[in-house]
Amino acid sequence: MAEKMLMGGNVSGINSEEQSEKKGQVFVITRNKAIVLAIIVVAIIIFVGVMSGVLSAKKARKDALDEAKRDRRQGSETASSATSATVVTPTEKTGPEPWYKIRLPENIRPLHYNFYLDPYLEQNTFQGNVTILVEVTAASEFMSYILIHINDMNVTRAKVYKQSADTKSDTASPGDEVALKRTFEYPKNDFFIFELEKDLKVGKYVVRMEYKSTFSSQLNGLYISTYTNEKGENRKTVEPRCFQAKEMGEHFLMEEERRDDDVSDGEVFPKKAQVFVISRTKAIALAVIVVAIIIFFAVISGVFSARKARKDALKEIQRDKRQGDLSGSTSRSVINATDATTSVISSPKPTSTAGSTLAITPTDHDPKDLKPWSQIRLPQNIRPIHYDLYLDPDLEMNTFQGNVSILIEVTAKSEFMSYILIHIKDMNVTRAQVHKVYGDVKSDTTSPGVEVALKRTFEYPENDFFIFELKNDLEIGKYVMYMEYKSTFSKHLNGLYISTYTNEKGQKRRLATTKFEPTDARKALPCFDEPAMKATFSTVIVHDTEYTALSNMPVYKQQSLPNGRIASHFKKSVPMSTYLLAFIVCDFKYTNATTGVYNNITIKVGTFIFTFNVQSIFLKLRVWTTPAQVSQTEYALGVGKDVITYYEGYYNLGYPLPKQDMIAIPDFSSGAMENWGLITYRETALLFNKGVSAEANKQRVAVVVSHELAHQWFGNIVSPKWWNDLWLNEGFASFVEYLGVNHTHPDWEMMEQFLLSDLQLVFPLDSLASSHPISVDVDHPKKIKQLFDRISYSKGSSIIRMLEGFVGREKFKEGLSYYLRKYAFANAETKDLWNALGEKAEMDVKTIMDTWTLQMGFPVVTIKRAGSDKATATQKHFLLDPNAVVKEPSPFKYKWYVPLTYIFQGSAQDPKTTWMNVSSDKVEFAWPPGKWIKGNFRQVGYYRVHYEDDNWQALIAQLDSDPMVFTAADRYVPWKTALNSLGFLGGILGDRRGNGYFQKFVRSKVKGLADKLGWKNQKNDSHINKYLRSSILRAACRSGDADALSNATQMFKEWKSGQRYLAYSLDSSKIRSQDAVSVITYVASNPVGKYLAWNFVQNNWKTLFSTSTFRLTSLTSGVTRFSTEAELEQMKAFFNRSEAGTSENARKQAIEKTQANIEWLKKYEDIVTNWFKIAVVA
């Protein structure tokens, strides 16, 4: 307050100016205030003396160490001497400095303003000072600058201080002043810039500024307003008008000095108050004496402290020389492992601070200066062997704490042997230690051996790293890391998070659950969070007595704790990747069964693998859900039991764990997650209510259960080395899921449905120039999450299906079994699978399949007659828009090894095969004269086929005369294929002049079958017939069939507004956040709802972006079904002004698809419209 009075001038008029002139200028102060002032002065003297001593000692110590280092190196470092604050105005852009940008840097945020304002209404001026508490939240490339907005203002003083204490709004004790190189303005963007001598650290600072200005001449900023009072006098008021960005929210404490010209010269203090009156001259003399005492005390303290510190430092240097420990270290600050506990934010330069954990960002980019934490990947010479994890979640407080002991092995030397890196995210590490292990230890972490001395521990949030920096280099061998930590449950549906449900009593119940794939295990425990870093896990979970704890392995012991809770101890796991870990604390119920044919015991001796089969009678299968829904688990239990038995035989490898749990989670971001031994599902993917749930839901449960169980072998027993081979996991499981369901339900025609659900759905996406190869180099977690798309799943499964087709089913199974046994409990790459399959099939599988995995897209094969009895086939990269520019380079120049299969008229069940390769433009083969040819037998190949007009006409004639050659007229798969293609036309013609003819055409084709199938399921209906009914009736309704619409309207009596339904998607109490994207895309799939959904997404993007991160790709592709220039420009404008997140690729694809649709309409709209017009009339 004293400082503010000094800066603001006279306050509250103790005596008027006139009185001061007559009687001499004096200061008046009460006795109590004089005593307080004296105490403050003494405290300042003591404080300054102590601080002077500390700083002098620190400087002397540093100087001594620097002298010693200078003796051992050539050259010297020079520091900038520009320390005064100057005001300049850059006029030309010279680089990417932050003041050239309109927006403030996002990594510096204000927390609190102390604002003092002194307006002079008559003189039309004001002055003031402001003290701002700011926080540097993250490192950036401009850490030596602080930018703040000013406009039409004269800054007379500007300083920056480092905030030493953890404070939320206190700016009165800012700590050490930060040295400034200069201050300057950039008026173009209204910036005042502090340029610092040294980079900012992540943490809190105080910015102080004094300034003067005049009131604004416009009705904005701080301006004068006038009015006339009852006496007819013209009066003035001050009107502040400003705009505050929500994202820069802060606290304000404002003091305004007001002058009152009518204040009397009456008594200022109570009559009995004892006061001191001192003249101005004496006050100045007294202030000089006090300042002199402070300076004298500071100098004396500094001198003695500096002498002692220098002496101690020189002794330390001599001792280090004798021990040989001075190896270029720039600091001798000692951080004991037990001290390096607090997770704090620090600077861009790695500075040791005793007793603290820093968060740093290196600023040097010279490769020789790169540190391991600046890399995305973990160092590969340190591998985890075993984790002992103790987890204590508090569901009511929304927090959890834990500790983990990790046995690691240093397998080789590297250039960074004094560092250990581990992943953490959104976590406060409270203790960190490292111990050296002696002897051959495989998993024991309870007797770790000798503690290793740490120089410091710090964080690097950019790459989610927690770093141990050791005093001495690591040795090759084993160590134990011990860490204690605290955190809060994730706000998103990943990491360790809270899900809720309402029980039958109407009570809201909570459960803790996990979703770690791909990179979110680090949110629940410190770990080596890469798929290749496999290790075993022994887990203990603490929970309340009414809850059950689940994890990957069975519970072998429960321990009652003094606080009344239970600690559940789980058996040691097999070696597994961190993304497959799972922990759940819930009050669910389950149904159970036993399953399995045989288990295997696999023993590795060097490069040899021995596998023994033993009878599996103890594999327990359980399906969990909320107590009220437990009856809906029976179907999934039956499917799971049969599929596990089938997979054990198919892989010729037994299920390796003693139990398999499957659990329905009320809030879950994806369909399911294949956690080893504890698969988590969305409720709709696991529960089936017989007599209530739709037939489609029954198939979905069977497919998802089969998919996740397939992963227990392919993905869990053998995992990818890195995420560029994600497709190996998902593509393979997406193929084998059809085999599993086909085994349990052979009448469902699952192998034919593959064409609808995967092959035909991925073709449009992979025909875009913005597609991507199956195998993609990725590093950042955001890019990894983008790989969970239809390319990895559907294209992956399609090329696996094609591979099985040309190597043969039995050879394919032999190769898979060999692959799984060879790499059991380890990691593999795509080439390892190709080599294993090639060895069993006796062919070069790798050379063939590389053309399908290492380049995007697929070919269209064109077959033409060459003479009377020959055919030529050529291949070309198929693009939805032929004019699209492909920017992605291809190592094979967009040529493929194509297994071209074909049949001729008269021998439809006798397919031939001819190989097309990357080196020749065409292949020739026999084609009997007078017969049609059909390529890609059963659509096993991942390619399209095109013919000359004569052959197309011959195929059409065949369908007209005898359709049974190809398929039955009322079968589901061909009908669904046709309706999917017509759906494209319906979407693109929806608001065009040809839509009426199109709709009439569709009605004419589906009317007869719709009437035949009816609106009710029959007792003898097959599963596939129910699917057909659903598709045909939907097409009838969409094409405007009156009878179909009447029936649908009667069945759906309560119509709900699409707008209200969309609004529900943002209210998790009505529609769970996991289902929000599905709701919006379903609305968008209707021609009327398309624009409604698009506008809704634009207006609510920020909310959807924060709650649906994992499904932004589906959301973007679902609401961007456009075909006009206006829609394209609107879409681009929205994409430019909004953050993409994980939808970056989807946005490129949406633009490309829209451009292709525009071109399609230009070329074919008139042709198609006329065709439908003629067809309808006919």
UniProtKB/TrEMBL annotation:
<dbReference type="Pfam" id="PF01433">
    <property type="entry name" value="Peptidase_M1"/>
</dbReference>
<keyword id="KW-0106">Calcium</keyword>
<dbReference type="GO" id="GO:0070006">
    <property type="term" value="F:metalloaminopeptidase activity"/>
</dbReference>
<feature type="domain" description="ERAP1-like C-terminal">
    <location>
        <begin position="969"/>
        <end position="1058"/>
    </location>
</feature>
<feature type="binding site">
    <location>
        <position position="707"/>
    </location>
    <ligand>
        <name>Zn(2+)</name>
    </ligand>
</feature>
<comment type="subunit">
    <text>Homodimer; disulfide-linked.</text>
</comment>
<keyword id="KW-0735">Signal-anchor</keyword>
<dbReference type="GO" id="GO:0004230">
    <property type="term" value="F:glutamyl aminopeptidase activity"/>
</dbReference>
<feature type="region of interest" description="Disordered">
    <location>
        <begin position="66"/>
        <end position="94"/>
    </location>
</feature>
<feature type="compositionally biased region" description="Polar residues">
    <location>
        <begin position="339"/>
        <end position="360"/>
    </location>
</feature>
<feature type="domain" description="Aminopeptidase N-like N-terminal">
    <location>
        <begin position="384"/>
        <end position="580"/>
    </location>
</feature>
<keyword id="KW-0031">Aminopeptidase</keyword>
<keyword id="KW-0325">Glycoprotein</keyword>
<keyword id="KW-0645">Protease</keyword>
<keyword id="KW-0479">Metal-binding</keyword>
<dbReference type="InterPro" id="IPR024571">
    <property type="entry name" value="ERAP1-like_C_dom"/>
</dbReference>
<keyword id="KW-0482">Metalloprotease</keyword>
<dbReference type="GO" id="GO:0008270">
    <property type="term" value="F:zinc ion binding"/>
</dbReference>
<dbReference type="InterPro" id="IPR001930">
    <property type="entry name" value="Peptidase_M1"/>
</dbReference>
<dbReference type="GO" id="GO:0042277">
    <property type="term" value="F:peptide binding"/>
</dbReference>
<dbReference type="GO" id="GO:0005886">
    <property type="term" value="C:plasma membrane"/>
</dbReference>
<dbReference type="InterPro" id="IPR045357">
    <property type="entry name" value="Aminopeptidase_N-like_N"/>
</dbReference>
<feature type="site" description="Transition state stabilizer">
    <location>
        <position position="793"/>
    </location>
</feature>
<feature type="domain" description="Peptidase M1 membrane alanine aminopeptidase">
    <location>
        <begin position="635"/>
        <end position="852"/>
    </location>
</feature>
<feature type="transmembrane region" description="Helical">
    <location>
        <begin position="34"/>
        <end position="55"/>
    </location>
</feature>
<dbReference type="InterPro" id="IPR042097">
    <property type="entry name" value="Aminopeptidase_N-like_N_sf"/>
</dbReference>
<keyword id="KW-0862">Zinc</keyword>
<dbReference type="InterPro" id="IPR034016">
    <property type="entry name" value="M1_APN-typ"/>
</dbReference>
<feature type="transmembrane region" description="Helical">
    <location>
        <begin position="283"/>
        <end position="304"/>
    </location>
</feature>
<feature type="domain" description="ERAP1-like C-terminal">
    <location>
        <begin position="1059"/>
        <end position="1155"/>
    </location>
</feature>
<feature type="active site" description="Proton acceptor">
    <location>
        <position position="708"/>
    </location>
</feature>
<dbReference type="Pfam" id="PF17900">
    <property type="entry name" value="Peptidase_M1_N"/>
</dbReference>
<keyword id="KW-1015">Disulfide bond</keyword>
<dbReference type="Pfam" id="PF11838">
    <property type="entry name" value="ERAP1_C"/>
</dbReference>
<dbReference type="GO" id="GO:0043171">
    <property type="term" value="P:peptide catabolic process"/>
</dbReference>
<comment type="similarity">
    <text>Belongs to the peptidase M1 family.</text>
</comment>
<keyword id="KW-0472">Membrane</keyword>
<dbReference type="GO" id="GO:0005737">
    <property type="term" value="C:cytoplasm"/>
</dbReference>
<keyword id="KW-1133">Transmembrane helix</keyword>
<keyword id="KW-1003">Cell membrane</keyword>
<keyword id="KW-0812">Transmembrane</keyword>
<protein>
    <recommendedName>
        <fullName>glutamyl aminopeptidase</fullName>
        <ecNumber>3.4.11.7</ecNumber>
    </recommendedName>
</protein>
